[in-house]
């Protein structure tokens, strides 16, 4: 194994999507894991060349450690991070160590920095929201003039994910107040484009689409941050799905993706026009990877890892039509909090095949995420319409009540089905 390629992996995932030894599928490798404590259970600890459990996966904390790893074992063949929080760090480590494999810093920057991302897509002739970075600290009037003097406008962190820090402003006074004290180097401003939000999930290999699906969100990621449930339903095969995947191809080619997994979001306006929203160089979060494994037998995280380090894909099945969707309820926005009451599993929803419900008395001590919530549901059905009805039925029936502090003893775990 001393001649096997050395891979350095930044890991936060403690479930099956962090099982890199399984992703290798027998390919020779020496694995060095840099993991948070929560990611440790998924890893092959006995088979690791080195394993380091760290509270921080920040670049400046990892660089001396990765240099020491390279001194002991030779230069890595690739440095890989699957989380949105680690992709740029892995690329910076790749550049700093002169690693030739994995994702380069230029590619990752196009997928991480929203103005750079939109500029590349726009230069390819694809419709994007009008946008402006805030590097030169423009005032409200300058932004309004540049973006068409129309409200609403959206202020976004340039590199954050999951709608963190996003603000929708609807008046000049709101815009001026939002700009006050904002770090201009970290934000952009763009026009608000109204319409359905779709997400395209898949894998590119050798510059071509290897696998892709299209889904329509139920509510939005911004709604989820504000306390509403979030879900999506896969589009049926047909002309609309084909049109959206072709649009996604245009965006991904503009960004220079050859090999990798992606989660791309598109706005479909009422008149049918498609507008690029943003894209991640990774599989989608929430229940997206679980649903795709259940319906298509594809492990998007395994495919992402193999694409990034140059191994051939594992999934070679045909993408037969499938209908499905998912729904998650957010954790309490004020913590600590506990579940004081909740509904039972909704009745009469044949499409509901998997659920995870919090126990009454369960305590939430950390902010909610797309991986944990106060109710998780997955659906499969005959077509998109039946799945969408099932999602709406659960939205109408399932309720959860939380109370702050002063809680009884925690009840661990979830009810699963």
From TrEMBL:
ATP-grasp domain ranges (all copies): 118-309
Organism per entry: Streptomyces gibsoniae
Keyword Methyltransferase among UniProt keywords: no
Entries under Pfam families matching the protein: ATP-grasp_4
Name by which UniProt lists this protein: ATP-grasp domain-containing protein
Keyword Ligase: yes
Alphabetic keyword roster: ATP-binding, Ligase, Nucleotide-binding
Domain of life: Bacteria
